[in-house]
Amino acid sequence: MNKNIRTLIQALAENHSLTLDEYEALITARDQEAADLLAQLARTAREAVYGREVYTRGLIEISNICKNDCLYCGIRGSNANCDRYRLTPEDILACCQEGYALDFRTFVLQGGEDGYFTDQVLCPLIREIKARWPDCAVTLSLGERSRESYQRLFDAGADRYLLRHETADEAHYRSLHPPAMSFARRMECLRDLKEIGYQVGCGFMVGSPGQTPKTLAKDLKFIEEFQPDMCGIGPFIPHRDTPFRDCPPGDVALTCYLLSIIRLISPAILLPATTALGTIHPTGREMGVRAGANVVMPNLSPVAVRKKYALYDNKICTGEESAQCRGCLSARMESVGYSLVTHRGDIKKI
Ligand code: SAM
Ligand code: FES
Fold first, then answer.
1. What is the rounded CA–CA span in Å between residue 117 and residue 110?
2. Quick check: pTM over 0.85?
3. pLDDT tens by residue, 57-75
4. Ligand 1: which of 63, 64, 65, 73 to mutate, judged by most atoms within 8 Å of the beta carbon?
């Protein structure tokens, strides 16, 4: 690591900000020494806010039916090989019940953009979850909707919304999505969600086709400026039925490097060690937590549908019972000196 990079890392830890060019230089100059220093500073920053607690969310994959056609995604609308399913509101409530008994206090309802899940279906469901388990948070991750819809879901009790921005570079965004989707619309959704009052998560894949240090620098600058409450980053992993089937997967070390940088940009941010990270490396999630992540999202979906929510090939945790998933992650976190906690796990304002 040269002296300039050390200076940049120290400046980032102190000021939580770099210029676009500096972010790019930090990414381009990545080596083991820089990664170790970033991870050490990221752990210190995270532990000052959250100690050694890791927050946990129960992920319920409510539908793999999607009208979109994102080029990277295994459940894209045009994938005729995808075996489609949709959970009923009763199925989803049963997942929450099981999750509550397993100490989850946040439920994440994630799915493709499935026209069945109108506000008329979702609002009563959200109200029911909040009525039955008032000490739980509800996070939605259901893609792009109108501002009015986001408002109705918020008024029904939803607390948080995850909508990855995918890339902060407009041309790169176009290369990852069909013409019907736009960068401007994605950004508008994120702004709407924030203005409405959700705790908002953005994020991106590491190693998506066409990504460069320049586009990554824009992602980091966007995170610095948008100040999300959460940021989901995980490696891109190809899916055999998508146009990106032959593209190489993202890199575990680069993902951890970026997790550390994001922790230093925003010390209190909620940063998951994702399932995708655990998929490309057997201890990827432990490595993510040691790099600065502080959230894990075990799967609470019914075992019968898990394999069908195949965003990418070889996804882990598709055969386990929910209790096993929670137990496995708890043991993994303990193995690196962290522990899962039983509460909603809201962002701490510092
Ligand atoms: N439909 C919602 C949306 O678009 O936000 C939520 C579901 S979508 C499948 C959730 C995330 O999965 C996407 O934001 C994307 O970053 C990630 N994803 C999709 N395909 C992936 C792949 N091949 N590798 C890694 N992550 C992927
Ligand atoms: Fe819709 Fe992936 S294309 S969830």
1. 11
2. yes
3. 999 999 999 999 999 999 9
4. 73
